[in-house]
Amino acid sequence: MSSNYFDKKGSEVSSKEIRRRTVVSFSVFIVLLGVGFFAWSKLYNQPQSADNVQPFLRASLQANERIFSRLYSANKQTKSFKKTDAVARVRVNGDVGMDTAFDYAKWKLKVVRKPGDTLFISLAEIRALPKTEIVFDFKCVEGWSQVTHWGGVRFDEFMKKYNLAPEEAMKYVGMVTPDGQYYVGVDMPSMLQPQTLLCYEMNGKPLPLDQGYPLRLIIPVKYGIKHLKRIGVMSFSNDKPKDYWAEQGYDYYAGL
């Protein structure tokens, strides 16, 4: 039996040449694997920055943010669905900040316009504003999504109602749960997008406790990590507010 083989061009290749090519290919693979491991090790063992993230990773995420924020359009609309498309059992995307000792009977939204100048707004006052409903595909960074139905007041209309034009001119909105355990920072253009809601209803009923009762953020142009449940305090700034998941190494912008 012949020990020779033929390559794709039909040329005869000896067993010795096959072995040589195999050794070369395997050697190249080992070298590339070693280079990859070395590069990963160098990046992984970099000293972490103040927000607990390796500088190279944070720089990459910030570059992505600059690109996508420049591409953002105020006219961008997330696809809407029919109410009948919405799931009946809505998945809970995390429970950080959902302190079971929370006294919702005493809750009021604290809107900090500047130090020493805070509005205290009740749920009844928020519900008295025009209601907007949205049915959209809620996306989580964990890889799952659901078509869900929410109701509340548009954030841009809330800002107008409470004469927050100076605050609207700032770059960011910060939100924190009443227990201070969960917090997000969101760019103002995304907050003012007309589908962004201060939400108090899910599937036409008051929010369940585990979905952020009495008030949560629904912001369809962002991943679920930005949809803060149970808003306690809202503030405004030109510097990035602290953000829970950005401190864990996730993208601060978290846009879709």
Can you describe this structure?
The protein is an alpha+beta fold. It folds into two domains: 5-44; 55-248, Alpha-Beta Complex (Sulfite Oxidase, Chain A, domain 2). Helices cover 26% and strands 23% of the residues. It is built from six helices and twelve strands. The strands form three sheets. It has a five-stranded mixed β-sheet. It is elongated, with a radius of gyration of 26 Å. It starts with a strand and ends in a 19-residue tail after the last strand. The model has no long low-confidence stretch (mean pLDDT 88).
Helical proportion? 25-40%
**Poorly predicted tracts of residues:** none
Major sheet characteristics: 5 strands, mixed
CATH class of the largest domain: Alpha Beta
Helix count, DSSP H or I runs of 4 or more residues:
6
Task: Provide keyphrases for this structure.
2 domains, 256 residues, single chain, Sulfite Oxidase, Chain A, domain 2, five-stranded antiparallel sheet, alpha+beta, 6 helices
